[in-house]
Amino acid sequence: LIAALSLGSCSNKGPDFANSIPDDAVAVMTMHPMQVHNKGRISSFESLKKKLENEVYHQLIDDPLSTGLMLNQYIYVFMTMEEEGPVVGMVAGMKDQSKFEATLGRIKEGISSQFQEGEFYTSISPDDEGMVAWNAEMAVILASPDHDELPADFWQEKLDWMFAPVKEESLASMVDFKDFQGNMQDMNLWLSASKAGDIIREFGGDKIGDIPINLDNNYSHMYCEFANGELNISGKTNLSEEIQKNLDEVLVLNKSLNQDLLKMAPGENLLFAFSVSADLEKVKELSEKIPNADLGEMGEQVEELTGIAAQSWLEALTGDLT
Fold first, then answer.
1. Which secondary-structure segment (H or E) carries 99?
2. Predicted structure pTM score
3. I need a surface site. Which of 94, 147, 217, 218 has the fewest CB within 10 A?
4. What does the alpha-carbon distance between residue 2 and residue 317 come to, in Å, rounded to a whole number?
């Protein structure tokens, strides 16, 4: 049920229901289904339909409006890291509550008898792995692979906050997220590194130690746009001063290619091309911090092949490599 609803939802940027995303979210994916649908991505939908047996799912793909969810807005899928494990949520605007409830009934017969009507929203726990909740303004889905570990009142407290959010505790109040929303395309991804250590330990096990640097206030954006049969992807990172300073000391790649060197590359009948530009002065500076003994086996192989010590090669590097 939860997977099915995620298919059928959302162009105003920064809708009111985005305030329901908590500020401890570490990842947010947004999508505008009608923009994607109207841009002719039919082949992708047909491929997906072949993998789904339930006719209701086919209807959600063919006619997203039938879900009752608002399609002139983005939908937001987010992830938070709780002590017990990750929690994934989806937030979408509501256009027709009765249609939405009818969609639930088509997915699972007799499900309306399980609806729990509260003061601010109606909810249901269809799979005992999460919650679906809605009112006349928005719909929310929450789920977790570690649902058995969560406190009994976890879902209730989360939903109560999401349907009456405190704006100052919302991700939408964060400057970087506002910037992200202002640049959204058809599909988008926002990432925060604030809990990267927790995520690595969650999936890497107890052998992963503490990360020695502070990763707060580091964000990454990615934007995907379908246009004229192409998928255009762009992105950017906003780094803290501490991280930027550390990276400036070790990154040897240039932000752009050396155009004079690039003109020397062949341009016809290419099967594949990959370009990178390196600042050899920085490579040299880094090499000076590496003792000869630490160059190890690779250094010995370089010297055996060329007759020149690896350190001498590194010290001779100047200019630009493209």
1. helix 97-107
2. 0.70
3. 217
4. 57
Per-position pLDDT tens, the chain of length 322 = 555 555 544 444 579 999 999 999 999 999 998 888 777 555 555 555 555 555 555 566 667 677 899 977 899 999 998 888 889 999 999 999 999 999 888 878 888 888 999 999 999 987 767 899 999 999 999 999 888 888 878 999 999 999 999 989 999 999 999 999 999 999 999 999 887 656 665 666 566 556 556 677 889 999 999 887 788 899 998 887 776 676 666 566 677 777 777 777 777 776 666 677 777 666 666 666 655 555 566 667 767 777 777 667 666 665 565 5
3-class DSSP state for residue 223?
A: strand
User: How many Cα atoms are found within 13 Å in the side-chain-facing hemisphere of 240?
Assistant: 11
- CA distances (Å), 147 to each of 16, 35, 85, 89, 255, in order? 28, 34, 8, 13, 44
Q: Count of CB atoms within 10 A of residue 276's CB?
A: 10
Strands 85-93 and 187-192: unpaired
Distance, in Å, from the CA atom of 122 to the CA atom of 133, rounded to the nearest integer, reads: 5
Bridge-based pairing state of the strands 187-192 and 230-238: unpaired
